[in-house]
Design brief:
Oligomer: single chain
Order of helices and strands: HHHHHHHEEHEEHHH
Helix content: over 70%
Structural class: mainly alpha
Strand order of the largest sheet: 1-2
Radius of gyration: 20 Å
Number of domains: 1
Shape: globular
Distance between the termini: 45 Å
Number of helices: 11
């Protein structure tokens, strides 16, 4: 299993890094494909847990939210009909308008359930399923569009003169990968104290500490790439690392409810797509929030 995990990582990591360096539209395309595959897995897990979401409608709702989020992030680059569409929905914004439409459509689908209690649960879970991926995953694209102070996402920053958006996205990837690797290796070697046993028995406090140390080191590299002051990694690493762990636990909670060990089997040695992006679902918005509110990258 470990050999398969390593082999898969060796194959996928360069592809992901290449897409990060290439930027748009390739990044949004990758996010869109990953979102669709993850939504299929989420709906399958919700169904296995007994929540009976309207499968096709929930997946399409999640795809619509993903598309709206990606269009919003790439608003300056869209053209044709999309330009008028974005302008017409400002305010409330294309993402907010799409979310309202999703809430209404999924509510209408829930009306068809014979039992109101089942209908309410169906509505709640289908909205959760579509928003869980459709709203959280595209924040990776938001990170890729973070501008340099007084500049744009394409402005060169940091020690290597990388575009600001690329530097921030690399920092996100490095922190999440470092946390996952550190937590896995330390937990595997010296882990004894269970972290949240009823959700994920394999997670340990020792693994958490090892992951946070690795995440902080990765954040130091990221700070050099971005050009942040030396104190930022001491906050950024642990905060984003904890968010990555929370994202992993959130997916584990869903899998536990569905009585499944993995979300799917598309990624050999790692499970499904959702198993690979779960940490990013929480880490990306937290890093984006840090950049905007603390690091002053709001443009």
């Amino acid at each position: 299993m470990l050999r398969t995990r390593i082999l898969t990582a060796v194959i996928l990591a360069p592809i992901i890094l290449l897409v990060v360096f290439l930027g748009e539209p390739w990044l949004s395309l990758l996010i869109g494909v990953a979102a669709f595959l993850a939504l299929v897995e989420v709906v399958s897990l919700l169904d296995a847990a007994g929540y009976q979401p309207p499968q096709v409608l929930t997946i399409l709702s999640g795809v619509a939210l993903t598309a709206a989020s990606l269009i919003s992030v790439n608003a300056e680059n869209v053209g044709g009909v999309l330009t008028g569409f974005v302008a017409a929905l400002d305010p409330p914004g294309i993402v907010a308008a799409t979310l309202v439409a999703v809430l209404l459509l999924l509510a209408a689908a829930a009306f068809m359930r014979g039992d109101p209690k089942i209908g309410f649960v169906t509505w709640s879970m289908s909205v959760f399923g579509s928003a869980y991926v459709g709203l959280l995953l595209p924040t990776i694209a938001l990170v890729a569009h973070l501008p340099a102070p007084g500049g744009t996402a394409a402005t060169a920053v940091g020690a290597f003169g990388l575009p600001s958006g690329v530097a921030w996205t690399l920092t996100l990837v490095l922190i999440v990968w470092a946390y996952d690797t550190g937590a896995y290796l330390v937990g595997r070697q010296v882990g004894r104290t269970r972290l949240v046993e009823h959700i994920s028995p394999a997670k340990t406090v020792e693994g958490l500490v090892g992951g946070l140390v690795a995440a902080t080191i990765a954040a130091g590299i990221g700070a050099a790439l971005i050009g942040l002051e030396p104190w930022h990694p001491l906050i950024l690493g642990p905060v984003v690392g904890m968010a990555a762990q929370a994202g992993d636990l959130a997916e584990s909670l869903l899998k536990r409810a569905a009585e499944r060990k993995e979300s799917g089997s598309l990624v050999p040695g790692h499970g499904g797509i959702l198993d690979r992006i779960d940490s990013f679902l929480f880490a990306a918005p937290v890093l984006a929030g840090y950049a905007l509110l603390v690091a002053g990258r709001g443009g």
